[in-house]
Request: fold
Amino acid sequence: MLASQRHLFDIPRDVAYLNAAAWSPLPLAVQKAGRMGVKRKAHPWDIDPALPGRVIERARVAAATLIGAAAEDVAVIPSVAYGVAIAGKIFTPPAGSRVLVFEDDHSSPVLEWLTRAPAQGFTVETVKRPADGDWTAAMEEAIAKPGAPLSIASVSNVHWSDGALLDMDRIAPALRAKGAALLIDATHGAGMMDLDVKRLDPDFLIFPTYKWVLGPYGRAFIYVAKRHQDGVPLEQTAFGRTGVQTERVPYMYDLSYASTARRFDMGERDHFVGLEMAAVGLELMASWSHTAISERCAMLTKRLEEGLGNAGAVLPKRALRAPHILSVSFPEGMPTGFIEALSAERVFAAPRVGRLRISPHVYNDEEDVDRFVSAYARCLRDAAVAA
Reply:
């Protein structure tokens, strides 16, 4: 199990920050990379013209490493929604077919299909939240449902609101058996869990850097299976073509698309400040390994379970949630001002769809957990007295 990496972050001892699923603090090394990049941009005449290209490929390789992909199958993008829009443009569900999403999933893997459905004639089918919390079984049932053919499932592998787990090692083959495609929003999985694309063979897998992989906003990556790499990208860029180079004449000498997922790279990808920050965070994650990270987070959420359970919290079954996220349900509703009361105690988690989502990372330790449990119990008692 990975030891606490708190020393690599600038987190005061009196802060118990268990909110990585919202956004992570930046490691000191990532902060340093950002400052260095800004300093370079202040003196652009000193920048090596080859620098942006090196940084782009460094980040691409680092992102690919986390998901077991070849770098050439990964594109640099700004957000998950952008990646889903790429998928929506190059993959068209046939009229009369079904697109599967699940209830209360994040908007990113859902809205693109809802927007396209009326004009393209397919149906977006929402898998309802199962009473027993077993999303995998509920999805398997929806996949096996007779009737209209299934085109694609566009789903998160971890439910953003409460950490409920979707077992992709069961979902992916079930979809393949139906001839259906798979888009994985791996926002809460990449770097934290085993999402090897060689094994799962998704059509698309997308994740940002600002949460679990310890990077900045505005940087994300999409894996595009080779079977879809002949699609037309969202943006028409010089680097997305085989031969558009400003230093030669004619500079548009070959307009055929790049033969790899690089054709889907975002415009203005030469953002060496953010991409170098992203690369450093991704490389840190890879150096620790998802197994060691997951074991650490699982230990912390187990400790949270025990402490919060003793305080009367309503918790999900451990087997049905991700190891790095634990959510507390409030059958009578979350007390008014509860999140603010926790923040006043210098402990931090997020309210999501009526639940309290708690999400520790490598910088957390047992002291953080114990402080969180104590603050939770105290704030809950205070809320009950106030009511």
